[in-house]
Amino acid sequence: MSYRELRNLCEMCRIAGFPRPISIDSFREPNFPLVAELLEWIVLRFEPNALMSTKCSTEQERVIFIKSAVLLLIQNARIKLNPKKLYMADGHAVQELVQPLKILSLADRGSTSEAHAVTIPVIRTKLATKLQEVRQCASLAAQLPQTGSALSSLLEKELHYRADRSRALSRALPPSEAEKALRNATTALSTLATQTEDKLNNVTSDEKALDEKIERKRREYEQMQKRLAKLQSFRPQYMDEYEKYETKLKQLYDIYVLKFRNLSYLQLQMVEMERADRQRQAETETNMRQVVEKMRTDNANQAPPIDVSELDDEPEAMRPTGGARRIYGNMMGVGFSDEEEDSDDDVDVSDGDEEIDHGRAMKDRIPAAGRSRKPVQHLELEDVEDEMAPREGDSGDDF
């Protein structure tokens, strides 16, 4: 910062019309309020409608103010300032403020020189012109590839069309042919115009037809809506009977479900009883085999020896016949073979008679499971089904 710069700043402010005088010693020390006042006045001179925040009590507010002022000067006057030097608010800020003040002072002097006649409308005009040029350059740059490809294709066709072009240039065009070509072109254009007008008229008529069709469909839709409402509110004559039968069907279905459940339960119980009977029968047969085996073992151990000579001496009438005394098989029919019975033939006759009588008694005591069990079960199942059959007046609530 020099004395000359401070003096120039003060003179420029006076010439530009700053509202109060500025001393040369004002910028010896940092003076941010004065710099802010000068900067706000300069921005409003360039753009009277600019909006700026004048609050500069805090550091953040000062930074925002400096940034907004610098941005407005760049946008409106194309003047670029250093915000760091402006924030210092000393001699460095004076160097930055001299640039816009110089432009304002020259404008106030009314200089007609082209180099110094810088006004806001002129700047805006120049900016608009430059922007338009930039847009044109961008559009031309986008068209360059397409234009280059088209030119290349045309240059490739030059050799083919060169002879035709030379022949056409060498021949003079008669006025009659030119008039005829113009007349044909005029007729074609008029025909095309007529077709276009007809299409426009047809479009209008088509729009009217579509509007009428839409209106007719809308009326039909409203009528169908009314008819639907009537049908929904109408109750058929058979509806009461239908509801009555529906209620009865529901009751019958409940009865059917109850009886089906009871039948399933009874069938399950029957299967369990058959299983228990088969198990009890098996246990009984096992016990019987054990008893018979034990009896045979006891008889074999206790039987006295038989004297064959005594048997021969007995009268023939007293001798037991072979069919009465000889026994084949066993009482159960399972678990013993004929060989075992043949081995017991030498047992005493009296002992054999006792064994046969005992076996018959035991056989009478055993229930005939294999002969009569299944028919009895079938009879019981039929009785159960008869019991389960629906009767008149039965509600099905027996279980």
Describe what you observe in this structure.
- The protein has helices at 3-16, 32-46, 59-77, 83-88, 91-109, 120-170, 175-233, 239-302, 308-313, 322-325, 338-342, 349-365, 369-388.
- It is mainly α and 399 residues long.
- The longest helix is centred in the C-terminal third of the chain and has 64 residues, at 239-302.
- The two termini are 117 Å apart.
Main beta sheet strand tally, sense and closure: none
Uncertain ranges: 111-117, 320-328, 333-356, 365-385, 392-399
Shape: extended
The H/E string reads HHHHHHHHHHHHH
The portion of residues assigned to helices is over 70%
* First-last Cα distance: 117 Å
Strand content: under 5%
Radius of gyration, in Å, reads 66 Å
Helix-strand category: mainly alpha
The count of DSSP E runs of length 2 or more, i.e. the number of strands, is: 0
Mean pLDDT: 75
Number of helices: 13
Task: Present the secondary structure layout.
Layout: H1 3-16, H2 32-46, H3 59-77, H4 83-88, H5 91-109, H6 120-170, H7 175-233, H8 239-302, H9 308-313, H10 322-325, H11 338-342, H12 349-365, H13 369-388
Helix pairs in contact: 1-5, 2-3, 2-5, 8-12, 8-13
Characterize this entry briefly:
The chain has 399 residues and is mainly alpha-helical. The protein is built from 13 helices and no strands.
